[in-house]
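This entry is retained here.
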Amino acid sequence: MNEEETFASVRYIVDDVPAAIDFYTTQLGFVLRSNPAPPFADVTRGPLRLLLSGPQTSGARATPEDASEAGRNRIHLIVDNLDAEIERLEAAKVPFRSEPTSGPGGRQILIADPAGNLIELFQPAG
């Protein structure tokens, strides 16, 4: 198994790759893995490799026009203390897309990256 196979990769199409790098590394604890060309970077958090593709990349150009808006899909990140994360992200002026929601499995809230892609912060119950 090569290093690429140790990650689960998700591609997010973003308008501004440097802004996306800053958001994911500063606000959500991702680590910059590579930024080989201005329109592309990848960041990692644990086994998740997030591919940040700008409009000039082949990944973005392959997206059908009717699917070009950020959708209902989202990455799911587990946090230890949702209230502390909410407070920290509010102070950093990160846009929230929902109110905190509770269910049998735990609590969650949705935030958005600079391009409008959704991120779910989830604190498991118990």
About this structure: The chain has one domain: 3-124. Helices lie at 17-27, 58-61, 82-91. The domain at 3-124 is CATH 3.10.180.10 (2,3-Dihydroxybiphenyl 1,2-Dioxygenase; domain 1).
